[in-house]
């Protein structure tokens, strides 16, 4: 089979066809700052510099899609919804003060407009710049916040966890708001040219909440977003960090097409359990392997993933989570080379 463009390769897989090889899409955003020399904080306020770095990363390292973003989507929306942020040097922003301190505060929180609220317009401009540059040669992935995680940003994670037991009505009301905010942001990204919307919901991880809590407060809202994204012709993906083996069935039932699995999940067991329902994506260890490992170790781990779960054509080689900023670029090159070497379909 002649070599496909990254867009053709990824879209072929998503259509249920077998491409020329396993796609390789590390979850890499601000790591690309190494290539252009832009500072992390500097890029947060410059769509042009962020776009330049993201484009340089894909061009020089050769992976099959671009994650258009520079910081966590839930930070961007939390700020746009009224949270006070701190901007550490050479790191992504963090919520410094929550906007929802009591149930009465929900009424003062508005659903942000992606084109006018906070720094969201900077993100939308960056997406358009990247889209214009790649045209239809490279697919774009973009994060939207999981409603449970965004609720934790607005009210505080500890307060949210306590409220799931003591005041579930308050949590449900807050989740209705965050679901609408996340959905509006997701659809704006689709309109700007994003092909795959990744709902990122780390606070809904099995490392933090029980399967019962996930079923009550996370899964229904994740399904709403997936349905909305699919209705407008985009692809819905779900990323939840940490230990998720106990909720894989629920995650696969949210009507997404892709599950991005963290390195703490046994990929072989996941494939045996839900591999026929969704496309699995993952799951090289971002810190121990990509940040601190060697190219040979990265190649060996990628080879194992491909040969173990990638033979049926329903697998995307990726990192288990966001690639750390100072990850050696040669490790990403080794990851891409492994897909090209071991991921060919005969």
Can you give a write-up of this model?
It is a single chain. The chain is an alpha/beta fold and 346 residues long. The protein has a single domain, classed as TIM Barrel (Alpha-Beta Barrel). 49% of the residues lie in helices and 12% in strands. The chain has helices spanning 6-14, 33-36, 40-44, 47-61, 73-80, 120-134, 147-155, 157-166, 168-192, 211-217, 219-231, 248-252, 267-274, 286-291, 295-309, 329-342, and strands spanning 66-67, 84-86, 94-97, 140-145, 196-200, 235-240, 258-261, 279-284, 315-319. The strands form two sheets. The protein has a seven-stranded parallel beta sheet. Helix 13 links the parallel strand 7 (258-261) and strand 8. The radius of gyration is 19 Å and the shape is globular. The model has no long low-confidence stretch (mean pLDDT 95).
Helix percent reads: 40-55%
Number of helices: 16
Could you say what the CATH topology is called?
A: TIM Barrel
Report Rg: 19 Å
N- to C-terminal distance: 8 Å
Task: Point out poorly predicted stretches.
Answer: none
Itemize the secondary structure elements and their pairings.
Elements: H1 6-14, H2 33-36, H3 40-44, H4 47-61, E1 66-67, H5 73-80, E2 84-86, E3 94-97, H6 120-134, E4 140-145, H7 147-155, H8 157-166, H9 168-192, E5 196-200, H10 211-217, H11 219-231, E6 235-240, H12 248-252, E7 258-261, H13 267-274, E8 279-284, H14 286-291, H15 295-309, E9 315-319, H16 329-342
């Amino acid at each position: 089979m002649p070599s496909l463009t990254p867009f053709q390769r990824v879209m072929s897989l998503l259509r249920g066809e077998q491409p020329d090889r396993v796609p390789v899409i590390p979850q890499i955003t601000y790591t690309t700052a190494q290539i252009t020399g832009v500072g992390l904080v500097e890029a947060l306020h410059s769509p042009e510099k962020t776009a330049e770095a993201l484009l340089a990363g894909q061009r020089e390292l050769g992976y099959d899609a671009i994650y258009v973003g520079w910081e966590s989507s839930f930070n961007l929306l939390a700020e746009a919804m009224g949270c006070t942020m701190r901007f550490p040097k050479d790191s992504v922003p963090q919520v410094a003060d929550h906007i929802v301190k009591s149930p009465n505060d929900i009424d003062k929180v508005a659903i942000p407009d992606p084109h006018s609220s906070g720094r969201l317009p900077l993100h939308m401009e960056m997406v358009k710049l990247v889209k214009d540059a790649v045209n239809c040669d490279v697919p774009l992935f973009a994060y939207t916040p999981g409603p449970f995680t965004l609720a934790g940003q607005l009210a505080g994670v500890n307060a949210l966890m306590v409220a799931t037991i003591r005041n579930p009505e308050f949590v449900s009301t807050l989740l209705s708001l965050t679901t609408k905010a996340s959905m509006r942001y997701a659809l704006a990204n689709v309109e700007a040219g994003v092909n795959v919307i990744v709902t990122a919901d780390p606070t809904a991880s099995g490392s933090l909440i029980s399967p019962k809590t996930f079923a009550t407060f996370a899964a229904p809202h994740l399904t709403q977003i997936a349905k909305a994204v699919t209705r407008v012709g985009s692809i819905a993906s779900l990323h939840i960090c940490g230990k998720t083996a106990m909720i894989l069935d629920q995650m696969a039932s949210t009507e997404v097409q892709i599950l991005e699995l963290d390195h703490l999940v046994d990929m072989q067991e996941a494939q045996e359990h839900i591999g026929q329902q969704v496309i699995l994506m993952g799951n090289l260890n971002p810190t121990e392997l990509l940040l601190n490992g060697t190219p040979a170790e990265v190649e060996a781990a990628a080879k194992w993933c491909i040969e173990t779960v990638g033979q049926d054509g329903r697998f995307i080689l990726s990192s288990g989570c966001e690639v750390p900023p100072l990850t050696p670029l040669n490790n990403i090159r080794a990851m891409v080379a492994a897909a090209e070497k071991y991921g060919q379909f005969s």
